[in-house]
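hey so u asked for the seq, here:
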Amino acid sequence: MYLIFYLDFSDNFCIFYAKLKENARYWSLIMLEEKITKEMTIEEAVRQYPETIPVFLTYGLHCIGCHVANWETIEQGAVTHGIADFESMMKDLNKVAVSTGR
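ran it, structure tokens below
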């Protein structure tokens, strides 16, 4: 079961998902925070969150040390390298970024 809460902070909407875990006695509340966006360059994402390197490599985006990473966005790199599951990669990148606490 999912509950969705909409909070209005001066026209900025935050969406919270609260998932009731069926075999648990607690609610897990997750704020969908996008620290890494598809418009960021690969180099920018890796510089800010070096912990994301394994995620890039797992999805086949091996551009980490390439000179193209300085100007190519994450989305452009994914298209160039034929990454089919782009949305999952972005979610995984953001999970790692959020877990750093920065």
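Helices lie at 42-48, 53-58, 74-80, 86-99. Residues 17 and 30 are 6 Å apart (CA to CA).
lmk if thats what u needed
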